[in-house]
Here is the input.
Amino acid sequence: MLLARYREVLSGRVLELGCGAGRLLGYFLTLGAQAHGVDLAPAMVEYCRRVYPTADVRVGDLRSVGGWDGGGLDSVFASYNVLDVLDDAERRRVLAAIRELIAPGGILIFSSHNLEAVDGAAEAGARPVLARARALGHKLLDRPPAAVLRALRRTPRRLRNRRRLVKLERRTDNYAILNDIAQDYGLLHYYIGRDEQERQLEQLGYELLECLDLEGFPVPHGAGSRSTELHYVARPRI
Here is the structure.
């Protein structure tokens, strides 16, 4: 819905952070965009350069986006919770740096893990880890037997990762750093609620234009959401 709604601005000068193999870069190019991409993985960048030769794709770290030499962007796109690999201080610094790259009238579109979904599961009587385990169980039931077997074989690795990283989880009044199922529980991710994310954006010089859940429904201020991820559209304040 956001790709369609903001089609016009996404057809300008767009930078995708964490572009991977170019799933969205290819779409931006069909819009006639001057597409740029940054990814940490050299193999991904090389693939994008082969498949999308008209795009400018570079190897780069999110934390260095402030050094991007192509300011005046119409839009910056950071999907699939890519900003959530950063801690709070890094996240704020990167969001501030992105703001400086966006031209007047431009926008930032990004997604983030929703802390309210985790807390909502706990309030419903299920521990967050148990709730995530139940969700995983339902997914496994919908998969072919071979896929289920592969998932079960990964269980020991998941347990080891969980034991190693759960001790590093932490919560504050504004956000949480949690170990989730991504990469077999091998990562820590940033989680934040909808209204707290709006406050964070305001503190960093943005205006929140809208927030959508994973089904594409709007999540207004104060409403809260149980969607596991939320998508935000913001623009720098003039």
In short: The chain has two domains: 2-115+190-236, 117-186. The two ends are 26 Å apart (CA to CA). The mean pLDDT is 91.
